[in-house]
Amino acid sequence: MREKNINILKRSGSVIKNGNVVFTRDFENRKRHAEQEQKLKEVEKRIPPGYRSEIRMYQKYCKETRQLETIESLMDFLFVSITEEAVKKNTWEKRVVALRKYFSVTYDISFDEEIRKTVANIRKLYQEDDRKRLKKETGKLPVDLDELLNIIDILDTRAKAICLVNLDTANRPNEMVNLKIQDFQLDGRIVNVFLQKQDKWHNKRLQPGTVRAVQEYIKEYGLQPQDYFIGRRSKGGNFEGVKISETAYRKQLKKWTGYTPYNFRKTMVAFMHSAGADLSTIAKQTGHRSLETLDKHYLNVADATVDKFMDYKK
Question: pTM for this structure?
Answer without folding.
Answer: 0.60
